[in-house]
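We treat protein structure as text, and this decision shapes the records that our systems exchange. The tokens are whole numbers drawn from a learned vocabulary of local backbone shapes. One such record is reproduced below, unchanged from the form in which we store it:
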Amino acid sequence: MTRPILFQLLRLRLWLLDRLRLEETKATLCWAGVIGLAGGFSSVLFREGIRVFQHLLTGRSGGVVQVISELPLAHRVLVPTLGGLLAGATLYFGMRLLRGQRSTDYMEAVVLGDGVIRVRSTLVKCLSSLFSIASGGSIGREGPMVQLSAMVASLVGRMARFTTPRRQLMVACGAAAGIASAYNAPIAGALFVAEIVLGSISMESFGPLVVSSVLATITTREILGDKPIYEIPPFEMVSKWELIPYLGLGLLAGSVAPVFLRFLQKSEDEFSKINAALYARLALGGLVVGALSIHAPQVCGNGYSVVTSILHSAWVWHALALMLLYKLLATGATVGSGAVGGVFTPTLFCGAALGALYGIPLHAWQPEWTASAPAYALVGMGCFLAATTHAPLTSILILFEMTLDYAIVLPLMLACVTAYYVSCGLQARSIYSDSLDRKRKETGTVSLEAIKVSALMKPGSPVVLETAPFIEVARMFAKYQYNFLYVVNRENVFRGVIGLHDIKSVLNDPDLERARCIIAIDLIRPRFPTLTPDTSMKLAMRVFTTHVGERIPVLDPKSRKLLGVVSKKDVLLTLAHNGFQANAPAGESPPAPA
């Protein structure tokens, strides 16, 4: 590249930088988009895997309930039992073959871990889940779909050699893509991960989550069509006084949710007491589901067809109550036995049934100022979800995205918030608390006070020697998309930095030959902030608040040799995920600029 062309390119970059203010965020958003596309494709492949395995196990294709209903009675028992046996054997022998490789779920990878999800162990778990779901296990497919998408995101983060906070963010983007593609709900997908997994709606993380969710949703819609997960009837509030019954529904859902969570925990405890191999326990869980399906094949699967029926048909109260009981038993047997899958969709089933059971007698008593049971079933889905997950915002939005009907917003908001507060008052734990608590006991946690800059440090390129000519400085700025070059001597001792804007006067000088006399040491800034490996995260954030750049060099405190750099985005992500304020500890002041 000739010198005039090189200088023209640098002038163009400076012009774009002044107007667009490009930062590292653009790279993060691009990677989030790639993960969204990959997450959408992985979800489509998992759905296809369910169809293939279902045909292998039953010889039929279609909805799980329809397929099970068409089987002879003996086969209704045999298929879920065989599916549980195969699922358990896959987990048991697969994990034995992967001895030494601990299984990591996406919540642990984001909240507690280092953003690394093992590929082989995840594939083993997803294969096991395929057997459970395809054979009619009462469990949701969204769990393995989210895990698979998060695994792909973790793989991307490792291949790109991201720092730990960025890998964690990429895994969170993968989880958001999985949720969005599973429910055709991009807003809820992003908010679910922000509210439940990260516990923060900071734009440092929420922006990439939205990008991943949107692209994952577009991908699945292009392949599978734009049909909503649930076909929702029009919602109508008959009277403004109807808000009172919806408030009552929130109170009921918030009171019942802790019982539901304790039931699932009790099921796990009882199955764990069985002195048998994992595959035997999962086969027993499948046997329970199969036995229940003889009288009620609707207990099989994630409950999608029954929810659709509740929303469009008039159920008899005692028949619906019996169906809810059967479904609870089937879900307890499947989850308790150790099957891999999600409980998000079964929770929606329980909420729909609870809401309909509440609405049927209420509408019969006051038909002139109350809606029919399907309206209460819809709101029941949202408020029961809010009560079990402790995520009212996600619950409100996912129901709104399902209905796209603004009329549902007022009663839904009231019921969800009420259910959330009642549930928290009765039991401070959500459906995801036990999983994370177990992981904390296994892995331990590190407070933000103990995290040092060295944990986020990465190589400090690009660097130039202090004797480098101006043309070499210009080539480095053209090669790397950074706004600062670090200047070192031959012993790698840090001498200062050159900013992209610092060379503007030379680039704009009509006498290009003048640049021949300039070397790197002539262009360095006299003062620039630096950090050491032992600097705390809080102090690093305080330094960044007074610095406009995206990166700060890390120096050895004695020799002042350049060890690496720390990115502002990595520090912000670490602070956001840990929920601490960025204030330096008392008595600790930022190091003086170099």
Summary: The chain has three domains: 20-231, 240-443, 449-578.
